[in-house]
């Protein structure tokens, strides 16, 4: 069985079918896998509220997870709140904004204040915001560094500084590409 099986992207390019039809068919197949016990959890990635609403109308099982880009520059709080209100785990990927956050002066300043790296500040901030956070690295030392975020807390006023950095910037995809 799989622990978690996701639809990676809400857009599909299937001739003669709408994206909504393809999402509903795909989700229906995933519901069947879940009901047969082949998947412990099923979810989606990069789904907006409109996509989740359509799934709710077209299907039976609510996604267990919505995996979405989440970092100080991209904090989609309305989507986070929507997911929480429907018991959908919001899972944030790209917490370092593909490295862009690591050179931001405010993040560097907070890293110095807490005696941490900018990466640790971003990951800890995400966790403190209640987000399941999945940083990516291929380097063992960075993976170890990324795990050392549970022995400190960022003060609420500093969390607010990071929350205020949201400018809607996406570093891994273009939201105009999905309908």
Automatic annotation (TrEMBL):
It holds the Pfam family Aldo_ket_red. Residues 2-163 form the NADP-dependent oxidoreductase domain. GO terms for molecular function: oxidoreductase activity. SUPFAM superfamilies: NAD(P)-linked oxidoreductase. PROSITE patterns: ALDOKETO_REDUCTASE_2, ALDOKETO_REDUCTASE_3. Belongs to the aldo/keto reductase family. This is PGFS reductase. It comes from Pluvianellus socialis (Magellanic plover). The gene is Pgfs.
């Amino acid at each position: 069985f799989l622990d978690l099986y996701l639809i990676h992207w809400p857009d599909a390019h299937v001739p003669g079918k709408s994206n909504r039809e393809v999402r509903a068919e795909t989700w229906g197949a995933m519901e069947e896998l879940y009901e047969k016990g082949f998947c412990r959890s099923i979810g989606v990635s990069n789904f907006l509220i409109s996509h989740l609403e359509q799934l709710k109308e077209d299907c039976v099982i609510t996604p267990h997870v919505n995996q979405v880009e989440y970092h100080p520059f991209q904090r989609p709080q309305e989507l986070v709140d929507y997911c929480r209100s429907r018991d959908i785990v919001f899972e944030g990927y790209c917490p370092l904004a593909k490295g862009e956050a690591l050179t931001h002066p405010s993040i560097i300043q907070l890293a110095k204040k807490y005696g941490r790296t900018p990466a640790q500040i971003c990951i800890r901030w995400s966790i403190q915001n209640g987000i399941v956070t999945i940083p990516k690295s291929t380097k063992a030392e960075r993976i170890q560094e990324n795990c050392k975020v549970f022995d400190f807390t960022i003060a609420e006023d500093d969390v607010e500084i990071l929350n205020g950095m949201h400018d809607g910037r996406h570093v891994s995809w273009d939201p105009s590409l999905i309908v």
